[in-house]
């Protein structure tokens, strides 16, 4: 197994008026990568500039950040040639993509789609988010730090400039080597790229990690259809796989995330969280996590539910005053 640690630099529109903005908000102008063996040895590097086709003038903020000028990019190669070369360079042996955060994989696939190139995969695939793994290995597991912060935290050499594709890939590879050496156990906390959502119910992702379980749904037409699905709305203990009765039905404090509380007689309280995501095709899919929690966190969840109910009552009361309607107030919940 090899690790392909890569980084992208991209440009964007200065005006937002180009017709391509909606389907290609960021145009890749540089790809840099480091290939590591399973033991963390550097076995190759890739670096290419890309001649822009859509946004031919450098965005002023991008130019200052990555120290590139439009005239330098004129010597670059077309995206299709560079992308093909990069994927061939990755090799025939099994490998995992490794990135700092999730954005680079999304933008790479948007650019591939724009040029009608084959997708990286037909559905979700596993990759390593080194930003997340750094937090799990060396900090609190929740924070998401900058690349330079991680380099400073680990006292790694800062001998090349940041904000160029190859240099940032090299820095990310240094952090990965440190994780391989000192905290290899965190590598099991892999991530899933869902640029292409599961094609059907059989392809949905159900995976268990230390301390929580994750479910990634197929695509639904809209929020209502997603929340009405039995699998989405279920509460199941990921240790004994029993379907549980909810102590608190699914509720949302903000219209984006939904929470519930269930109780397992064997393992205790279980907290569910649903995040509704917009797919690239315009539909809706669900990322649901469930984790066991203690009584104190369960009580906090009850208080959040009660607060959400109170806010909903106030909003409904104001709406009734404005419209003159009289009807029963019901908090927004799903079964």
Main beta-sheet strand count, sense and barrel state:
7 strands, antiparallel
User: Helix and strand string, N-terminal first?
Assistant: EEEHHHEHEHHHEEEHHEEEEHE
Overall number of strands: 13
DSSP strand (E) fraction?
25-35%
Shape label: globular
Give average pLDDT, whole number: 92
CATH architecture call of the largest domain: 2-Layer Sandwich
Descriptive notes:
By secondary structure, the chain is of the alpha+beta class. It folds into two domains: 2-192, Nucleotidyltransferase, domain 5; 201-316, no CATH class. Helices cover 32% and strands 26% of the residues. The chain has ten helices and 13 strands. It has helices spanning 60-66, 70-73, 79-90, 103-114, 130-138, 147-153, 165-182, 223-228, 230-233, 295-323, and strands at 2-11, 27-36, 42-49, 95-99, 125-129, 191-193, 205-209, 212-216, 246-251, 257-264, 268-278, 284-293, 333-334. Strands 7-8-12-11-10-9-13 form a seven-stranded antiparallel beta sheet. A hairpin with a 3-residue loop joins strand 10 and strand 11. Helix 5 (130-138) packs parallel to helix 7 and helix 6 packs across helix 7 (165-182). The longest helix has 29 residues, at 295-323. The chain is globular, with a radius of gyration of 23 Å. It starts with a strand and ends with a strand. The mean pLDDT is 92.
Quick recap:
The chain has helices at residues 60-66, 70-73, 79-90, 103-114, 130-138, 147-153, 165-182, 223-228, 230-233, 295-323, and strands at residues 2-11, 27-36, 42-49, 95-99, 125-129, 191-193, 205-209, 212-216, 246-251, 257-264, 268-278, 284-293, 333-334.
């Amino acid at each position: 197994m090899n690790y392909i640690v890569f980084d992208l630099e991209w440009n964007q529109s200065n005006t937002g008026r180009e017709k391509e903005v909606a389907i290609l908000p960021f145009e890749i102008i540089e790809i840099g990568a480091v290939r590591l063996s399973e033991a963390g040895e550097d076995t190759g590097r890739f670096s290419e500039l890309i001649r822009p086709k859509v946004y031919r003038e450098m965005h002023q903020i991008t130019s200052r950040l990555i120290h590139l000028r439009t005239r330098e990019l004129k010597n670059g190669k077309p995206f299709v040639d560079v992308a093909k070369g990069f994927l061939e360079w990755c090799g025939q042996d099994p490998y995992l993509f490794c990135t700092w955060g999730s954005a680079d994989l999304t933008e790479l696939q948007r650019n591939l789609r724009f040029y009608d190139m084959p997708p990286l995969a037909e559905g979700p695939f596993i990759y390593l988010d080194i930003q997340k793994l750094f937090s799990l290995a060396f900090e609190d597991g929740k924070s998401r730090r900058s690349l330079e912060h991680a380099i400073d935290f680990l006292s790694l050499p800062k001998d090349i400039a940041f904000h160029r594709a190859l240099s940032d890939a090299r820095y990310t590879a240094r952090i990965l080597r440190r994780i391989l050496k000192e905290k290899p156990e965190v590598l099991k906390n892999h991530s899933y790229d869902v640029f292409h959502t599961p094609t059907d119910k059989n392809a949905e992702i159900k995976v268990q990690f230390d301390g929580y379980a994750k479910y990634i749904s197929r695509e639904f037409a809209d929020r209502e259809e997603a929340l009405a699905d039995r699998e989405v709305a279920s509460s199941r203990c990921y240790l004994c796989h029993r379907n549980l009765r909810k102590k608190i039905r699914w509720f949302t404090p903000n219209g984006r995330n939904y929470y519930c509380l269930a109780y397992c007689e064997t393992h205790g309280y279980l907290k569910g969280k649903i995040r509704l995501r917009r797919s690239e095709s315009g539909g809706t899919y669900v990322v649901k996590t469930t984790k066991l929690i203690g009584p104190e966190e369960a009580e906090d969840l009850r208080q959040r539910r009660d607060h959400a109910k109170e806010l909903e009552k106030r909003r409904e009361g104001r709406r009734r005053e404005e419209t003159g309607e009289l009807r029963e107030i019901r908090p927004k919940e799903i079964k």
